[in-house]
Specification:
The protein is of the alpha/beta class and 341 residues long. It contains 13 helices and 13 strands. It folds into two domains: 167 residues, Glycogen Phosphorylase B (Rossmann fold); 159 residues, Rossmann fold, CATH 3.40.50. The longest helix is centred in the first third of the chain and has 15 residues.
Length: 341
């Protein structure tokens, strides 16, 4: 069994990278590997604030080198993929020079408008790369870096959630409830979700907080929305309750590296209205049935007369292609290809 360490800006949070990193950690432990963690913030065995997004001082090369010294493989979650802490990225590259390292790319800089022209991932003989979609894998290949695609995986039998109790707790009992299970930042397109809720005469429930200074813009959107808006989870309730309480899930984002709410809507058996962001095409290619964000007539018709067969077809596809139960097997194959056992 191998000694592995997972490194990231942050771990143990509710962002997609943290959530997916934890699934890998759990799978590695299930396989019997010893796993430790290093992050700039959050829940990690070693917290090094200089690794966090926006840190103002660079981490120590010696400090990082000591933490990773006795490991067989260093798994880096997005820290070199986006220029969110360039100083930390550069020190990490130096610490991993000549070592076995696996870089897992959830996003790449040229995929975001604000980071066009920034440096992409580097490569050397002992380094390996994983992407969560084929779009990124092909874009890396065009830049001379070989990668494999391992898409995000999901619990296909999640907890049922408490529909009526949750609806009462958020004050939406008897209302049509549209769930936007994301943070609020520009690319999440909250305005598009509000327009959908207005067209359906529904309440919009934004699950996450505003981040990256988006608070004032979000407040203005809410003030002019013309629809009831809820935000956040009540104490004692979780994301499964939120899905259970909703009548419709929306992912209005213009860009996602994957878009976990897409598959979460499937596993929780909820209809989804989604903006056609680029990676969605890959997910839809497996045969899933979703509604486009502006397809109001068909969305309203489905909400009035739900088709349970749509849910059953979607969940069958999720079990076949995105099942977290298959993740240990996929990671065993990956480690074997790297030469780590």
């Amino acid at each position: 069994m191998a000694d592995l360490i997972v490194v990231s800006f942050r771990l143990g949070a509710h962002d997609g990278v943290s959530i997916e990193a934890q699934k890998w950690i759990d799978a590695f432990k299930e396989l019997g590997h010893r796993v430790s963690t290093l992050a700039g913030e959050g829940d990690a065995d070693v917290v090094m604030p200089e690794l966090a997004i926006g840190a103002t001082t660079a981490p120590s090369l010696d400090a990082i080198s000591r933490v990773v010294a006795d490991t067989d493989l260093v798994i880096v979650e997005n820290l070199v993929s986006l220029p969110l802490n360039v100083a930390a990225r550069d020190v990490l590259y130096r610490a991993l020079n000549g070592r076995h390292a696996l870089y897992r790319h959830h996003d790449l800089p040229w995929q975001r408008v604000q980071w066009q022209g920034f440096e992409g991932p580097r490569d050397q003989a002992t380094w390996h790369h994983v992407t969560i979609n084929d779009l990124s894998r092909l874009q890396l290949s065009e830049r001379g870096i070989d990668a494999v695609t391992i898409r995000n995986s999901f619990d296909c039998d999640p907890p049922a959630g408490r529909r009526e109790l949750t609806r009462q707790a958020v004050g939406a009992d008897g209302e049509r409830l549209v769930l936007l299970p994301t943070r609020a930042i520009p690319r999440k397109n909250v305005a598009g979700a509000l327009e959908l809720a207005a067209a359906l005469n529904a309440t919009l429930w934004l699950l996450g907080p505003a981040e990256d200074g988006y608070g004032p813009t979000l407040e203005q959107l809410f003030e002019t929305a013309g629809v009831p808006v809820l935000q956040g989870l009540p104490h004692g309730f979780d994301v499964h309750d939120a899905y259970a309480a909703s009548d419709l899930v929306t992912l209005s984002s213009t860009w996602e590296g994957f878009g976990n709410p897409v598959l979460e809507s499937v596993t929780h058996r909820r209809p989804l209205a989604v903006y056609p962001y680029p990676v969605l095409r890959e997910i839809r290619s497996f045969g899933f049935q979703f509604f486009d964000l502006d397809d109001i007539e068909n969305i309203a018709s489905f909400l009035n007369n739900p088709d349970s067969q749509l849910f059953e077809r979607n969940i069958a596809l999720a079990r076949q292609h995105f099942n977290v139960a298959e993740l240990p097997s996929r990671l065993t194959t990956l480690l074997g290809a790297i030469g780590v056992n």
